[in-house]
Design brief:
Structural class: alpha+beta
Number of helices: 5
Low-confidence stretches: none
Radius of gyration: 21 Å
Length: 184
Amino acid sequence: MLRWLWLSLAVLVIDQITKQLADALLTYMQPVALLPLFNFTLMYNSGAAFSFLSDAGGWQRWFFTAIALTVSTALVIWITRLQRQQWPLAMALALILGGAIGNLIDRLIFGHVIDFIDIYYQQWHWPAFNVADAAISIGAALLLIDTLFGGEPVTPDKSGNPAPLSGQEKGAKKEAAGKKENKS
C-alpha cells in the first residue's frame, strides 16, 4: 500500500510551505485576524502537543525527534503491510505519517515546531497548531473510526502477510463465538 505515501508527501509539502510563509510573513505572537474565531498567530513550540515539556531545558528536542523517527518508521512498515481493501486505514496512517515528518523537520532544523493557526472564542484560545498537527489529528480520528467501525478482520496468509478473512472463515469465527456464549 505504498501508493498512499503520496498523501504523506502532500501533507509534508503543504505543511512546510505554510510554516515557511507564516514564519516569513507573520510577527511572533502578533495575531492577524482572518475570521471571527480564527487568527494567524506565529508561535514556536519546543515541546509536544499543547506545549507539553516546552520549558524542559532542551533535552526534549532530541527526545521528541527520536519518538517521531521511531513512529514514522513503524508507520511506513505498517502501511507497506496493508492490503488494498484496507485503504481507510492506509489513508489514516499516511496522514499521521506526513504530519509526524513535517513536525520532525521543524525540530531538526529550528529546534521547535512552527505553529500559526489560532482558533479562539472570546478570551479562550485553543493551543496554536499547524497543518501537520491537523493531519495527525484527522488521521488519528480516522484510525479510531476504522478501528471501531472499519473493514474486514485481517489474518496472516501462508506467507505471513495479512489477508482478509474469507466468508467461510468469518462464519466459522461467528459460530465459535456463539458456542462460547451459549456455554456461559
